[in-house]
Amino acid sequence: MSEYPWIQELLQMGGKEEQFSEKQLKILEAAVEMFAEKGYAATSTSEIAKKAGVAEGTIFRHYKTKKDLLLAIVTPTLFKSVAPFLAKEFVREVFDNEYETYEQFLRAVLANRYAFVKKYLPAIRVLWQEVAFHSEIKQCLQGVFTEHVYPKFARIVRHFQEKGELAELPVDSVIRLTITSLAGFLAARFLLLLDHNWDDEAEMERTIRVLMNGLRR
Amino acid sequence: MSEYPWIQELLQMGGKEEQFSEKQLKILEAAVEMFAEKGYAATSTSEIAKKAGVAEGTIFRHYKTKKDLLLAIVTPTLFKSVAPFLAKEFVREVFDNEYETYEQFLRAVLANRYAFVKKYLPAIRVLWQEVAFHSEIKQCLQGVFTEHVYPKFARIVRHFQEKGELAELPVDSVIRLTITSLAGFLAARFLLLLDHNWDDEAEMERTIRVLMNGLRR
DNA sequence: ACTTTTTGTGAGTGATTACTCACTATTTTG
DNA sequence: CAAAATAGTGAGTAATCACTCACAAAAAGT
C-alpha cells in the first residue's frame, strides 16, 4: 500500500538528507500518482488530500502553493533524469578504462536509464507532461542540459570520432541521433507500451546495433 | 490577425464540407492557441470567449461541453496525422512505380510529415499533450494505427526485406525504429526547437542516411 | 411580407477552486 | 516537566469554473 521508499529516494537530493513526516510522504505519493494520471491542472488539492488521507490544510502547511508541490516532485526528477552526466567521475570513466568503444558506452547508458525510467515512471510522466506548460521547469531542464550534459557528451563523441569508430558527422547531429534513438526506445517501451510480447533485452540490442551501424564510419 | 484558413483546412474532414460561421472559426482559433499554450485543463471557457471576441454562451451554442470543443480540434488533427496511410492508393504507389527503394519511401514520408507538422503545429501540440489524459483520444489513435497504419507499413517493410534492401530484423522492430527516428527528428525540430542554426535539409538527410545504414542488410 | 430557424448574447447558477486561519495535537528542547 | 516550536486540522472565503436560459438579431424559407 504505502510504497514511499521510492518517493523518498527520488526526493533525496544529493547531500541533503531531509526528513519527511509520514503524512508528507503520503501527500507526495498521492500527488505524483494523480498528476501522472490526470495532469497537474486537472487535479485539485482536495482530491490529493482525500487520497493521502490528510486534511487539505496539511498540504499547504508544507507547500505554500499547489505549484510548489509540483516543483517539489518535478525538480528532483529532472536532476535524476540527467544524473549520470552530473557525476564527476563520469567523463573519466569513459576515457580511462571502462568503455573502449562508443557502443559499450551506449549500452551502459541505455541499461542505466532503462532502470531509472522503470523505477520512477510516474514522476517522469509528470515531468514530461508539465514541462510544456511551466517555463521554470523548461528553463531548468535546458540549463542543466547545456551546462552539464551537452559538453560532456560532445567530448565523448569527439573522442570516439578521433579514434575512428564514429563517422565524421557533425557532433550535434550524432548527439541528437543518439538521444532520439535511446529516448525513442524508452518512450515506446514505457509511454506507448503497446506491446504485450516485447523482448526488452533483444529490442535494446537491436536499437543499439542499428544506431551503431548508422553512426560507424 | 484572423488566420483561420489553416484551421478551416484542418477541420475539413474528408468529403464533408461543413460550413463554419465567422465566430465559430474565431472560437476554434482561440481554443487551439490557448490549449497549445496552457493546456486544456488550465484554459477556461471565459478566456477562450474573450480571446475570440465572443460571448461565452456562443461557445456552448456550438459545442455542448468544453470537452466537445477539444475533440472538435483533436479528432481531425489525429486523422490528418496518419493521413498518408489512410489514402487508398498509398500501398500501390509504393509497390508499382514511385518508390523503388525503402530509402526513397522514407524520404517522401519524412518530407510529407515535415510539411504537415510545420503547418498544423499548434493543433498537433494539443493532440500530443492531451492524448495522455483522455482515453477516448488514446483509443481512437490506437485504433487508427493498428487498423490502417500498421498493416500497410508492415507490408511495405516485408516487401523491401524480400527485395534484399532491408536486413532480416523483425518487422515490428523495423517499424518501431523507423517511426522513432522520423518522429525523433520532428520532435527535436518542432517541440524542443533548440535550433539556433539548424539546417533542416541536411539534418533530414543525415537522419535518413543513419537510419538506412542501420537497417540495410 | 411574414414565419421559422439559426446564431449570438450576457446576466445568472450552483459547484468547485486554491488557499487562510484560528485552533488542537504532537514533538522537541531547555 | 514546562515551554516552545512544529505538525495537523477543517470550517470558511472570495474567486472562478463550466454551463443554462430567456431573450435579441440575423438569415433562410415560404
TrEMBL record, chains A, B:
<dbReference type="InterPro" id="IPR001647">
    <property type="entry name" value="HTH_TetR"/>
</dbReference>
<dbReference type="InterPro" id="IPR036271">
    <property type="entry name" value="Tet_transcr_reg_TetR-rel_C_sf"/>
</dbReference>
<dbReference type="InterPro" id="IPR050109">
    <property type="entry name" value="HTH-type_TetR-like_transc_reg"/>
</dbReference>
<dbReference type="InterPro" id="IPR009057">
    <property type="entry name" value="Homeodomain-like_sf"/>
</dbReference>
<feature type="domain" description="HTH tetR-type">
    <location>
        <begin position="21"/>
        <end position="81"/>
    </location>
</feature>
<dbReference type="Pfam" id="PF00440">
    <property type="entry name" value="TetR_N"/>
</dbReference>
<feature type="DNA-binding region" description="H-T-H motif">
    <location>
        <begin position="44"/>
        <end position="63"/>
    </location>
</feature>
<protein>
    <submittedName>
        <fullName>TetR/AcrR family transcriptional regulator</fullName>
    </submittedName>
</protein>
<keyword id="KW-0238">DNA-binding</keyword>
